[in-house]
Amino acid sequence: MKLYYIPASCSLSPHIVLNELGLAATLIKVDHKTHRTELGDDYFDVNTFGYVPAIELDDGTLLREGPAILQFLGDLKPELGLVPAHGTLDRYRLQEWLSFLTSEIHKGYIPLLYATLAGKYVDTARPKLEQRFAWINEQLATRPYLMGDAFTVADAYLFALTGWGQAAWLTSYYKADIHFDNLHHLHAWYDRVRVRPAVLKALREEGLA
Ligand SMILES: N[C@@H](CCC(=O)N[C@@H](CS)C(=O)NCC(=O)O)C(=O)O
Asked: Across residues 182-198, what is the average pLDDT?
């Protein structure tokens, strides 16, 4: 297994977990400015988004996103108790913590970190967000919903977040200047989700329809 990391960044957490597990992974350092690995490769060829952590399994499979990686690693040795068993309330409690840490703490740092870069936060955030939505658009080219043929909670989450950019039906402060005009698969997905009875009902109940 390989772990792509930037020293002192959030990839420190899977690094620690690998050590807890006593697993000898190959550590590959990524330069956070050039996005080159210490082997000289372009890290964007490994991870489309250029961020760490990412792990590469021995069969070449790549896994991204800290909370997913941490759970994957913990599940390799359940007897160590680094993650509670699947299906237990404690497992959801762990996911509650991971979601909180990733969205409220980890990403809560971003304005502070970019503020130190001469107030460039908006200029940096918008293209990143648009690139990520473009990637989602590509995923939706081959499947009707994020996970495949069936609507899941992830579609409900994305629907709410996409609305902030699209904002066709919003008049509130949840409006961001993000452009989706060319993302046809995302549009098709959005229209598909928007007419679901449960979605229409929710929009009505929130005074948005
Ligand atoms: N959604 C990702 C975000 C990871 C992330 O923000 N990584 C930062 C380090 S803490 C990074 O690699 N930044 C460099 C970049 O985005 O180019 C996750 O939760 O794993």
From this structure: 94
